[in-house]
Amino acid sequence: MNQATLEKMKHLKLHGMHRAFSTTMETGSVSYTNDELIAYLIESEYDDRESIKVERLIITAKFRYRAFIEEITASSSRNIDKNTIGRLSSCDFISQKQNILITGSTGVGKSFIATAIGYKACTMGYKVMYFSINKLFSKLKMAKADGSYFKEIDRIEKQDLIILDDFGLQSLDNLKRQDFMEIIEDRHGKRSTIIASQLPVSAWHEVIAEQTIADAILDRMVHNSLRIDLTGESMRRKKADQKISSE
């Protein structure tokens, strides 16, 4: 009877329940009441499905690398403290439809923090997408050529959180300005966006390179945002120096 039950669980794709029931049958020493066994099996199936869901969200997000909130170094020299990290970890900014603007010089950890927030959001069930912004513009340009532009824009709009990394490396031309404005306008007041940039926010007008559109974009982004202005030395250089000294 137990083997038949296991086969039915497998057929119904109740993989978490199947593993839990198999383990229970193999050990034999663990005794459950009927209601405890049912609760255990359901909890195991729930955990298994949640784990699969989170991994699928992480894959779909297309992060460049794995990063975790717990690995962010709180330091006054970096201008980020434990309270800020705690606020980021809760991901309350997503339910509040707030944005996050992360600025700082090369190597101080902007991309790492943005990615860590994105990973945390995925573990909490939020839909996230990560983009290097110049690659995003290239992707949208190709989407216009093959007729999938509006489908792509709609997909971006529906994400609970998008991360736009490396903003400001190049000034925006007219097409990129229009694409950027459309993305920000579609998400304003409805979804959250993280922008990471080497440039201070005060220099973004120059990057957008058109006063009226720059005013519109910054009005939507800045006034409802959490600001993280990172300082200090390059974390990449620091890690490289530590590696050399340990060899």
UniProtKB/TrEMBL annotation:
Reading the lineage from the top rank, the first entry is Bacteria
Q: Which residues form the AAA+ ATPase domain?
A: 96-229
Gene Ontology MF, one: ATP binding
> Which keywords annotate this record?
ATP-binding, Nucleotide-binding
Which InterPro entries does its entry note? Answer: AAA+_ATPase, DNAC/IstB-like, IstB, IstB_ATP-bd, P-loop_NTPase
Per the UniProt entry, what are the Gene Ontology biological process annotations, in alphabetical order?
DNA replication
Pfam families noted in UniProt: IstB_IS21
Q: Please give the NCBIfam families that the UniProt record associates with this protein.
A: IS21_help_AAA
Family membership: Belongs to the IS21/IS1162 putative ATP-binding protein family.
| Listed name of the protein | DNA replication protein DnaC
Q: Which organism is it from?
A: Chryseobacterium aquifrigidense
